[in-house]
User: What shape does this take?
Amino acid sequence: MSTTTASLPTTDAPTVRPVPMPGDGVLWAIRDTLAMTWRNLTTIRRVPQLLVFAIIQPTIFVLMFRYVFGGSIKIPGLSYVDYLMPGIFTQTCAFGAISTAVGLAEDKGKGLLERMRSLPMARSAVLGGRVLADTTRNFFVVLLMLAIGTAVGFRTHTNVAMVALGVFLLVLFGFALSWIFALIGLSVTNGEAAQAAAFPLLAPLVFASNAFVDPANMPGWLQGWARHQPVSAAADAVRACMVTGGPTATKVLTSIAWSLGIAVVLAPIAVRRYRRI
Assistant: This one.
């Protein structure tokens, strides 16, 4: 007698993302953030005009202050170009952070942010990826501006390690400001509105600072603001690291404190805003 075995119908079980174990959530968030960073860097690679225009504006400021206004501005004990360039580097990172607001506002207007929220990915990855990509771009722009500064007469008077520390402070400062502009980008409707909202915030920070002139030459009521705000702290620390040397610890720590303080406060607020879009 023969026996036959009946085969049961099989069904494909749905793929379920496993429940994260302690520590896995952090790894997933890092992975997702790096994926979004690469996505944004690919956009810059495919649209090189973004990098070109990020260099043109600070180059114009260098030429204008170096050769138009520089002859009328005197800094005791220091050539004006050596005083100017650390301020230009700081300004470059500050204005470069606006791209975070513009990019997020454009993604929001196109509906990409809503689509990303529906994906099984960390909520912080979208913002973190944008901020890290813009920070990476800022790093390369600063290196290019160092070369341009050298071409117009800027010289560092410290060692390589101190110059590298100055670059680190610039990148950290740009990273911190990107979180401010991430919040702005999530709060407006498109890229044009993001740019319009960003400039009134940056103008009093950058131009009423020690980036271009010594605050001692400003009106008394403005000197306090010019000396005690994040742009001045960053420019002063970078100037100490690259040009003046001497005791730099206080200036460096002040700049780091400003940058970390801005990031720690604004990053959670920006992520919370993203979740409510």
In short: Residues 165 and 276 are 38 Å apart (CA to CA). The chain has eleven helices and no strands. The mean pLDDT is 86. Residues 49-275 form one domain.
